[in-house]
Design brief:
Layout: E1 4-8, H1 14-21, E2 27-31, H2 40-47, E3 50-55, H3 63-69, E4 75-78, H4 88-93, E5 97-99, H5 106-121, H6 124-132, E6 155-159, H7 163-172, E7 179-183, H8 198-201, E8 206-208, H9 212-218, E9 221-224, H10 238-243, E10 249-252, H11 261-269, E11 275-278, E12 299-301, H12 310-329
Parallel strand pairs: 1-2, 1-3, 3-4, 4-5, 6-7, 6-9, 7-8, 9-10, 10-11, 11-12
Bound molecules: (2R)-2,3-dihydroxypropanoic acid.
(2R)-2,3-dihydroxypropanoic acid is lined by residues 57, 80-82, 105, 109, 306-307.
């Protein structure tokens, strides 16, 4: 009997690779070998005849790929929480299941969010750059040297209030923030899920915002944590920045295109806001050294490392493989997207 074919667009680590390799008797495993992202042409060519495909967030799953794979394709397992690289409608219309890894990366991304908030408020990037550039001797201690807004007492506005946002709120409470507001696809409505019991029981007000305008006006810290969809693309643009407080900062841990980069550069140039810290940006990873955002001293940019702890990446790999195998066998996945 012919083996079931699966395509995997990365070499995996430890346990994950082992679980996959143990299935070699029953599966034909075609795996991208390079440490660089999988080439699209390789994926299109090798998808032919696959029953399952394990993809990274850098692999586009669209009609063309599904067409190339053929009608036997049963499952896509994505090594990510975000699924904006996947055409969900195309999957649904073909009855293809979609696995993802939304739970195991929550802590890692929430931790990074805290780092970014503090970097933006306390001018971390700017301070480090000055020392590295040898400017410290010219800037001796001064009562106002490199001062920035304090996290305690801040009102924190969440654009999107899912698991990662709520885990971030949990971490922010001991810092003494004053209030949290959040905007979801149901403005003014209480969050559907209360992952850590904070929506109902936090010691500070945690309230739904009725609009992006309200959130922009009231927040000292704006955290972009929503999914990228046609309605959230450039949700944060000139208009939004125009409404933010002058001492407010913005952090993006979701997807680059939710913030209009040109508008952000302008807002920073014109000191409409205090600072920004980004884990993601439009057109990543193609950010060259002369990109205007890199000329902004009050903007910190890191290369999409939200979930990059050793433990989390191991778990993401293992869960992705489990989702792939569950999809092949018609079993329950660790986490499955409801299409
Ligand atoms: C994901 O998995 O979608 C995240 O962007 C990782 O940080």
């Amino acid at each position: 009997m012919a083996k079931t074919k699966v395509v995997v667009t990365r070499q995996l680590i430890d346990e994950a690779q082992q679980i996959l390799d143990e299935k070699k008797g029953e599966l034909e495993i075609v795996q991208w070998q390079s440490e660089k992202p999988c080439e699209r042409s390789w994926l299109l060519e090798n998808a032919k005849g696959a029953t399952g495909i394990l993809v990274m967030l850098s692999d586009k799953v669209d009609e063309k790929l599904l067409e190339a794979a053929g009608s036997q394709l049963k499952v896509i397992a994505s090594f990510s929480v975000g699924t904006d690289h996947v055409d969900r409608d195309a999957l649904k219309s073909r009855n293809i299941r979609l696995g993802y890894t939304p739970t195991c990366l929550t802590d890692a991304v929430a931790d990074l969010t805290i780092m970014l908030i503090l970097m933006a408020q306390r001018r971390g990037g700017e301070s480090i750059a000055k020392v590295i550039n040898g400017e410290w001797p010219q800037m001796p201690w001064h009562p106002l040297l490199m001062t920035g807004p304090q996290i305690g007492g801040s009102t924190v506005g969440f654009l999107g209030f899912g698991r990662i946002a709520q885990a971030t709120l949990k971490r922010l409470l001991p810092f003494g923030i004053k209030k949290a507001i959040y905007l979801t696809s149901r403005p003014g409505q209480p969050a559907k899920e209360d992952h850590f019991g904070l929506v109902k029981q936090a010691t500070i007000p945690v309230e739904p915002a009725t609009s992006a305008d309200q959130l922009a006006k009231e927040s000292d810290v704006v955290i972009v944590g929503c999914a990228l969809t046609p309605s959230t693309k450039h949700l944060v643009s000139t208009d939004f920045f125009g409404k933010m407080k002058k001492l407010a900062v913005i952090v993006n841990i979701a997807r680059g295109p939710i913030i209009d980069t040109d508008a952000l550069v302008k807002a920073l140039d014109e000191e409409q806001i205090f600072g920004a810290a980004l884990d993601v940006i439009e057109n990543e990873p193609n950010i060259q050294a002369n990109h205007p955002i890199l000329k902004q001293p009050r903007c910190v940019l890191v290369p999409h490392i939200g979930s990059a702890t050793i433990e989390t990446r191991e778990q993401m790999a293992t869960e992705s493989v489990k989702n792939l195998l569950a999809g092949l066998n018609g079993d329950a996945m660790v986490n499955e997207v409801e299409l």
